[in-house]
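Model it.
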Amino acid sequence: MTETLTIGKALNLGLRRAMEDDAKVVLMGEDIGRLGGVFRITDGLQKDFGEDRVVDTPLAEAGILGTAVGLAMRGYRPVCEIQFDGFVFPAYNQIVTQVAKIHARSRGKLPMPIVIRIPFGGGIGAVEHHSESPEAYFAHTPGLKVVAVSNPVDAYWGIQQAVAHPDPIVFLEPKRRYWEKAEVDTGATPGPLFASRVVRGGDDVTVLAYGPMVKTALQAAEAAAEEGRSVEVVDLRTISPLDLDPVFDSVRRTGRCVVVHEAPVTLGLGAEIAARVTETCFHSLEAPVLRVGGYDTPYPPSKLEEEYLPDLDRVLDAVDRAMEF
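Modeled.
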């Protein structure tokens, strides 16, 4: 069955299906029950599944994750919503010292099937602590998997796959893209969760992106085509583990690579990806791997965020610089 869904609605239906499939799935978060969440991702789920499975928690992120650890130890599959990206840091200790380590600490006896949903990135005109890109912190932590969806299809299937996975997953949702629409075949067989994907073919430059920047990269590729340049776009989809074989194949053909993300450039995911591409594809590269990202400043007030966020022009500038070599 094919439906036209927004990313937000796709997540809602994916969570509903996961809860129908497994009675051990429990949702937890601030205002996710009666309100349905700030972005209405959990709208209607408490009404249909009850307050014991869709739990309105206190405003205490460390408590949410600490409780999830105990539930996971008892065989449940908690799905924790962090209301905004900047609110995750009070829970950081629980995530990196407990969630990420208990499976290894117990020598495999205690799996941690916890999903931590985080709306991330800017572009919605929000106040401080509401537009962060914290993915590198979690990707750097062994024991965690990190996924960043960019479209309704991946949102619908990805959240179900994440809930069913035995390991803890930080599930990043591009909040400014929640209302983007696409056709979703809810009866299809999904592809693997931890796999990157070429979303636009090209021959001159490879542009890598994830989450909210995938749309920006695609827009830049369309603009470049008008100037006679053929840009291939790869949606990384998974940040940890990175699936770079499709990236290497692409770069060996194009000889040029640009990595785009909203997070600050310094020590961001682009640095790791650039290093891996350079190590593996050194003899194929015609230019250094270039990075486009946020500036090394705290996220600015909303009236300045358009100057901060990578946009079509900044991506095209990097493509131009890569082509000059």
